[in-house]
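ok, trying the design again with the full structure, not the truncated one.
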C-alpha cells in the first residue's frame, strides 16, 4: 500500500503507478524487466535513515538512484528496495572560500549555472540531466577535467547513511576509508550519499571550440592523425572524435573532430588548439570551423544533440593503450555496423596525468572509446541492443578495462580499477557493509 510520511513517499509493487514511478527514474527508456519490491522517494536524511533501517528489518537489498543516468539502469534490480534520491537537490555555495555543499540529485549543469554569477566553476559532466550522485561516485570526467582532474578529485568530503542507518561524514581526516572508496566505487558504493562537500574552481576566462567534420572515406587518415597528435594536445583541450551515420553539417556518415578549449584568454586558447586549426587533413574536411567562443550553454546544447531524451540505449566502453594499427580493423567495423544516428562512437584523447591522488578510481589509459547505440522502438532491440558490447568485445585483446561512467557490467564483465585498488575497495566494502545491504556492481552477487 502507498504510504506518505511527513515528506517521503513509499510505493509497493501492488500500488497503482508503481511501474511508471520505477521506470521514470531511468534515462534509458528500456524496461529492464526487473522491479524492486519497494520504492522509497526520499526528501531528507530522516527518510533515508528510516528506509535503510526498514530494509535491514525486512532483509531487503538496497539500490539507489539520483539522476537515473546509469545507461545500464544499475538501480533497477529484482526485489529489494530502491531509494530514489533525486529530490535531494540542495546547493549551498560559499563563494568566499570556493566551497559548495550539494545534494546528489543536483544536476551538474544546474551546479555550473548556479556558480556562474560568482565567477566559479566545477568540472560537471557534459550533459544536462546527469546528476552529481552517480557522476561523482564513479569518477566524473567533466568540462575541463583534463586540467582540473576527475570531478571526484574535487570532492573534499561527503555525508553518507551507512548500512546500519548511521549518518557519517567521510573525508581525508574522518572515515578516510569511506572517502577513499567514494571516489571511484561508482555503482558499487555501499551507502546512501546525502551531500557532497566540494572544492570549487575559478571560471575559465575563455571557452571556445574548433570543429572539423570528415566523411567516412577519410576514416583511416583521421584516426591515424588523431593518434599521432594526441599525447601532445595541451590539457586545456578536450579533444574528441564522434563517428556517426549523420555527422554534423555534412548530414552523412562521418567523423566530427572537436577541440573544446578552456583558457585564460582567446590568444592562449588559439595557441592550444593550433594542432587542429593547422591540421594537415583540413583540405579534405566537409567543415572546418575557426576557433569560436562557445559558452557552456552552447556546448551543452551541442552535446545534447547526441544524447536525446526518450531513447533506448545499449552502451559499452574500453580503455586502450593500443596503437591505431591494432585498433583500425575494429574502427572500420564500427563504421560499417553503426546503428542509425544519433548512435555514435566516441574516441576521447585521454592521455591521463602521470599521477592522481590515492582513491578507488585508478584505471585509465591513453585513449577512451565508448559506443552509444540508441534507438526508439522496442521492436528494434534485437537489432541494436548488443551492438556496443559486441564491438567492444571484439577489441578485447586491446582493452585494459572500462570506465564506470559508461559501464555495461551486467552484459560484459571487465576490470574498472587497478588490481590493488580493487582489492582494497572490496575489503572496505565488506567491512563497512558486512551484511551486503547495498547492491554490488551488476554481474556480481
Ligand atoms: C546522457 C549522458 C551523458 C553522460 N555524460 C557523462 C560525462 O560527461 N562524464 C562522465 O563522467 N559521465 C557521464 N555520464 C555517465 C554518468 O556520469 C553516470 O551514468 C552516472 O552514474 C550518472 O549519475 P546519476 O546520478 O544521474 O545516475 P544514477 O543512475 O542515479 O546513478 C548511478 C549509480 O550511482 C549510484 N548512486 C547514485 N546516487 C547515489 C547516492 N545518492 N548514494 C549512493 N549511490 C548512488 C547507484 O549505484 C546508481 O545506480 C553520462 C551519462 C549519460 C546518460
Amino acid at each position: 500500500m502507498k504510504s506518505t510520511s511527513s515528506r517521503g513517499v513509499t510505493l509497493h509493487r501492488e500500488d497503482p503507478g508503481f511501474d511508471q514511478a520505477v521506470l521514470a527514474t531511468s534515462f534509458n527508456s528500456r524496461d529492464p524487466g526487473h522491479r524492486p519490491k519497494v520504492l522509497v522517494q526520499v526528501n531528507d536524511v530522516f527518510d533515508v535513515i528510516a528506509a535503510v533501517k526498514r530494509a535491514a528489518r525486512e532483509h531487503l537489498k538496497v539500490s539507489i538512484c539520483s539522476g537515473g543516468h546509469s545507461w545500464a539502469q544499475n538501480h533497477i534490480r529484482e526485489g529489494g528496495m530502491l531509494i530514489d534520491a533525486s529530490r535531494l537537490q540542495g546547493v549551498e555555495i560559499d563563494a568566499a572560500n570556493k566551497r559548495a555543499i550539494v545534494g546528489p540529485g543536483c544536476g551538474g549543469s544546474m551546479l555550473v549555472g548556479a556558480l556562474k554569477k560568482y565567477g566559479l566553476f566545477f568540472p560537471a559532466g557534459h550533459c544536462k540531466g546527469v546528476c552529481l550522485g552517480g557522476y561523482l561516485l564513479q569518477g566524473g570526467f567533466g568540462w575541463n577535467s583534463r586540467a582540473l582532474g576527475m570531478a571526484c578529485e574535487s570532492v573534499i568530503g561527503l555525508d553518507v547513511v551507512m548500512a546500519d542507518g548511521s549518518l557519517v561524514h567521510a573525508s581525508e581526516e574522518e572515515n578516510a576509508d569511506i572517502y577513499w572508496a567514494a571516489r571511484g566505487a561508482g555503482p558499487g558504493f555501499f551507502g546512501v550519499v546525502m551531500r557532497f562537500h566540494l572544492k570549487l574552481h575559478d571560471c575559465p576566462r575563455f571557452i571556445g571550440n574548433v570543429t572539423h567534420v570528415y566523411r567516412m572515406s577519410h576514416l583511416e587518415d583521421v584516426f591515424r592523425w588523431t593518434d599521432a597528435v594526441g599525447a601532445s594536445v595541451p590539457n586545456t583541450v578536450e579533444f574528441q572524435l564522434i563517428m556517426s551515420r549523420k555527422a554534423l553539417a555534412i548530414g552523412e556518415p562521418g567523423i566530427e573532430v572537436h577541440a573544446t578549449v578552456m583558457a585564460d584568454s582567446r590568444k592562449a586558447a588559439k595557441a592550444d588548439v593550433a594542432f587542429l586549426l593547422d591540421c594537415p587533413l583540413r583540405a579534405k574536411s566537409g567543415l572546418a570551423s575557426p576557433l569560436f567562443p562557445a559558452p557552456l550553454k552552447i556546448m551543452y546544447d551541442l552535446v545534447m544533440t547526441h544524447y536525446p531524451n526518450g531513447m533506448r540505449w545499449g552502451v559499452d566502453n574500453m580503455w586502450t593503450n593500443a596503437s591505431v594499427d591494432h585498433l583500425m580493423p575494429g574502427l572500420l567495423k564500427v563504421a560499417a555496423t553503426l546503428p542509425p544516428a544519433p548512435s555514435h562512437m566516441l574516441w576521447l584523447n585521454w592521455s591521463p596525468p602521470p599521477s592522481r591522488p590515492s582513491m578507488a578510481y585508478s584505471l585509465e589509459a591513453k585513449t577512451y572509446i565508448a559506443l552509444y547505440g540508441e534507438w526508439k522502438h522496442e521492436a528494434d532491440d534485437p537489432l541494436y541492443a548488443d551492438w556496443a558490447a559486441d564491438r567492444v568485445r571484439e577489441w578485447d585483446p586491446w582493452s585494459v578495462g572500462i570506465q564506470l561512467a559508461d559501464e555495461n557490467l551486467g552484459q560484459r564483465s571487465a576490470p574498472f580499477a587497478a588490481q590493488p585498488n580493487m582489492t582494497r575497495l572490496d575489503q572496505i566494502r565488506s567491512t563497512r557493509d558486512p551484511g551486503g545491504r547495498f547492491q554490488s556492481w551488476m554481474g556480481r552477487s
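Keeping the full-length input from now on. The radius of gyration is 22 Å.
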